[in-house]
Each structure stands twice: as structure tokens, then as C-alpha cells.
Amino acid sequence: MSSPTYSTYPWDTQSWIPEEGSKTKTTCQEDLIHADEAYISALPGLKCDFTFQSPCEDDRRCSSKPCTQSTESYRLKESSEPVQVSRARGVKLAKRIHRDSLVFSTMTASARLNQSAVKLEVLAKSLPGGNCVFDPRGRLRFEGNLSRKRRAMSNMMSMFIKVPSKGVKRMINVSVFSNGMMSISGAKNYEELLYVVDKAIMRIRNAFTQDRLGRRSYAVSAPDRLDLGILESADENGIRIEMGKLDFDLGISIKLESAFQFLVRDFNVTYEPEFFAGLKIKSALNPFITIVIYSSGKGYMTCSSRAMLASKDASAELRRAYDAVCSVLWSNKAEVVNLAYSKRIFKS
């Protein structure tokens, strides 16, 4: 038999899983209520931790075995001294400060160049292997979608930067606009943001085209002085985190209809199974945090508050919102937990 999947919680489930061939037709609610104290203390209540995708050694989710490296701490280790992330062709970049920030499953960030005019056509032609998406007329449609919303934009170019990762090749998308704005999506932590931003600046610096007479036309007017500029609500590095997403796994199956009845008393909950398969939960105290839970017990959190993501108390705010939802589920565990499905998850 295959080994049980524990997520990050190796709980002893034999005390409440009904035996094979049991005569009872119920989903063993009494077994859950009369579970031993050791199992009760191990259920995902206020002690439940997030399951992060990084910085695992193989850069994958730790869903098959406990991973102390990914759940050891919410925050990256703080660096006491400024460090320079990347160097290329001897060109110096401004020093980046390594912030004490959350480790996300994925995040979206923005930055602004200190030069407001970028020649996207020159940049697209100079990238190696055409590693970009750019259509100056805005007529390029993405495969499988003919709507106007999914067309390429004439004032934006998307380039893809490979991040150093062990065992897995990952590409992060960087959208560069003609007015000097940049949008980065797909980074998992703040250090990856620093790496991608510096790589993008180096590519723009070295982008040029040459005519028959040997005259060069660069993507920016002063490539030697190109760096990040001033952006509203940005941090000390000039980077503004727009949204962060964190994954979690409760380790048990949830009856969404029952959970909706209990959560709707304290939260703004949306449950429309014909349109979306999960519960969307928003706290009245912090409307910028959204929690989504699926029937399998897995889910994710998103935070769309720039000020909150930039603050030092971001992890505490996210944790309080997560614990509040878990406490309601734990208080009504007899009606919320789907033991019939949880048996298939945990029993080998």
C-alpha cells in the first residue's frame, strides 16, 4: 500500500477513521467527537501553518512529507548589509536592500524606470532568441482566445527571465511599458524580485539596433544611467508589491455547504458552486485579505493591500485572518469535517 499523504501534519488518524466493513452508515461523527486528546491537539486549528512553495530544496510544494525548511518561518532572513544581486558586463547597479518579507507562492509587483521613454521595438529586436511578446500594432491574439481583451498591447512588451532554481526551470514574466513602468508577476519571494528587476534593467541597458552605417539606436536615451526611479508607495528599493498569494493545506476534507452556514455569521462569504468550486471568505475588519477554501481542504490567501504588504506586520495580519477562519471550522468540526473523504486521504 502507498504511504499516507500528510501535507505538513503527520497526524495519527487511526483513532477516528472507521474500519473497513463497518456496519455503521454514518460518516463517523461520533468518532470525531470522542477522538483522543492527542489527535484533537493535532487538528488544524490555531496552530495550523501555511505550506509555502519556497525555499524548498527541489522548489516544489511539500505536500508528500513534512518539510521543516518551508514551514520553519513566515519571513525571510533579514540581511544587515545592503547587497548587490546581479552584475553583468561590468556595469554597476544601485545597491538593493534585502527586506524582511513574506515568502509567497506567487506575487505581483511594479517598478518604474528613471527614464520615461522606452523604445519597445528596439528592445524586442535585441533580446536573444526573440524571448518576448511584442506587437507594435496590437493585433496579435493569444492562442485559443479571440477576444479583444487577450490581444497584445501596442505600448507594452512582455519578456521572460529565467530565475535560478534547483531542479525546476521557472520563467518570470516582466511587462515593460513605453512610459517606463514595469510589472513583474510570478516571483515567489522578495529576493527573486530583486534578481528579476536587475536582469530586466541590464537587458534594457544593452538593447540597441544598428543601421548600415554602424550608428546605434538604444532602447533608452541614457543607458549608462538607467536604474529604478521614484514610484508612489514603493519601498526603499523602488519596488511596490501589488498582490501576494499564499497556499495552505488543512489536511482534511471540508463540507463547504456546512462551512458556509457557520462562516457567514462572522465573515463575508460567497459560495456559488455552479460558478466557482470553493468558498470565498473576506473579513469585515480587513477587506484586502481573501481566503479561498476547496472541499479537499486546500486553498490559498491573497492580499491586495500595498500598505499592508509593505509593513512589518504583514505576516501577523495574514496569520490573524487565517486563524480566525480556522477557529470557526474547529469549533464546528463535527458538522464541517467530511470524514468519508478524509479517510481516503490519510489511510494507507
Automatic annotation (TrEMBL):
GO terms for molecular function: DNA binding. It comes from the Eukaryota. Keywords: DNA-binding, Transcription. Belongs to the TBP family. SUPFAM superfamilies: TATA-box binding protein-like. The keyword DNA-binding applies. The keyword Cell division does not apply. InterPro entries: TBP, TBP_dom_sf. It holds the Pfam family TBP. This is TATA-box binding protein. GO terms for biological process: DNA-templated transcription initiation.
